[in-house]
Amino acid sequence: MTIEFAEIAWDGRQLRLEYRWIGRGRDGAPLVVFLHEGLGSIAAWRDYPLTLCEAGGFRGLVYSRPGYGRSSPRAPGERWAPDYLHRQAREVLPALLQAAGAGTEKPWLFGHSDGGTIALLYAASMPDALKGAIVVAPHYFVEEKGVKGIAKAKLAYETTDFRDRLSTYHVDPDSAFYGWCDAWLSPEFRDWNIEKELGAIRCPLLAVQGIDDEYATMQQIDGIKAQAPQTELLKIPACRHSPHRDQPEILTRATVDFIRRHEEGR
């Protein structure tokens, strides 16, 4: 599973995005595209995408967004505006799929945290371009609990070895951390809310959250279901913000079952 690089033009720059295929030779198998969290990357997923794809017999496509992993870092002084998740869904993700050779396919999206929100926005704006989505600890509005958690993470980044640990997953940890942190802690972001867009989602949705999520309440996935009634909910006990780390077996079983049921229904 070799790391490859795609060249895309975005925001007035030429960017290199790292990506990796899993099980590319499984002709006809469902394709799952993995969308990482606000501090994630290909490396930060560790082996979970491979584990899920092996369990379901899926193909997988994993990539690092601009600013993360070994993809092009943010430009000097670049700050992400409150619409950065919309732009990732509507501009970067389609460009990456095209460059990686998956532009003509209808994938399943598997997104965690920020990646879950990107999956929701992609599904809302391009409802015919995917088969469905699994959104894990997504967010559709800003909660005070989340803001406090990010502020605590910023303090840890600047006073502990947190930065050194992030450097394991990013060639430029400051690019990854401050891109995410500064966007979420900006006053302009406090009113960010995509509730009205959720009603445009027509595809199957599985929304997952850990009961002990330190960044959000259950209103995040309950609110998604209120706007997109076809959503199935999975609330996992003894689980924090990252179910693929805290309860991977439960998440894998639920995801494989969800995709298989809907593939058979098609």
UniProtKB/TrEMBL annotation:
Entry-linked InterPro entries: AB_hydrolase_1, AB_hydrolase_fold, AB_hydrolase_sf
GO molecular function terms attached to this record:
hydrolase activity
**What keywords is this UniProt entry annotated with?**
Hydrolase
Question: Pfam family of this protein, just one?
Answer: Abhydrolase_6
An example GO CC term for this entry is:
membrane
Q: Where is the AB hydrolase-1 domain?
A: 32-251
Cleavable signal peptide: none
Keyword Mitochondrion recorded: no
Tell me which PANTHER family the record gives.
HYDROLASE, PUTATIVE (AFU_ORTHOLOGUE AFUA_2G14860)-RELATED, MONOACYLGLYCEROL LIPASE
Protein name, per record: Alpha/beta hydrolase
Q: Which organism is it from?
A: Hypericibacter terrae
